[in-house]
Amino acid sequence: MRLREVAELVGARFLAGEELADREVSAAFAADLLSDVLAMVREEGVLLITGTVTAQVVRVAEVMNLAGVLFVRGKIPAKSTVEYAAASGIPLLTTPRLMYETCGLLYTHGLPGAKRKPLPFEHDQPGPPPP
């Protein structure tokens, strides 16, 4: 799915990176705790769905090579954060929808959840790795 399609599905608008609207999104991950993103996402090209609007969101997107960041609940980061994202090539979008609704719409339209790293209690468990 492309960022343009994501925006259409959830009624989002671009705050930065609209020229990257054709960027491919491989999966999605939703979290307000950026430490969860760093600890759990194990692939690139993921769309981060969050209500956290600090500049650290853009830093995490850079470090993790994310496809972009979608802010929920109509949240908009500070102008300096939007400018930082634009300069870094990180698309930012915002939707008035709630996180639950946003994730549900994207999932039912074929965007899978991001593959995640094992949780601490899963390290000692036999069986296949987590999805």
Description:
With 131 residues, the protein is of the alpha/beta class. The protein has one domain (3-115): Udp-n-acetylmuramoylalanyl-d-glutamate--2,6- Diaminopimelate Ligase, Chain: A, domain 1 (3-Layer(aba) Sandwich). The protein has helices at residues 3-10, 34-40, 55-64, 79-88, 99-108; strands spanning 13-16, 27-30, 46-50, 68-71, 92-94. Strands 1-5-4-3-2 form a 5-stranded mixed β-sheet, with helices on both faces. Helix 2 (34-40) links the parallel strand 2 and strand 3 (46-50). The two termini are 19 Å apart.
How are the elements arranged and paired?
Blueprint: H1 3-10, E1 13-16, E2 27-30, H2 34-40, E3 46-50, H3 55-64, E4 68-71, H4 79-88, E5 92-94, H5 99-108
Parallel strand pairs: 2-3, 3-4, 4-5
Antiparallel strand pairs: 1-5
In short:
By secondary structure, this protein is an alpha/beta fold.
CATH superfamily: HprK N-terminal domain-like
CATH architectural category: 3-Layer(aba) Sandwich
CATH class: Alpha Beta
The tally of domains stands at 1
Structural class: alpha/beta
How do the helices and strands follow one another from N- to C-terminus? HEEHEHEHEH
Q: Give me the count of strands.
A: 5
Poorly predicted spans: none
Q: Share of helix among residues?
A: 25-40%
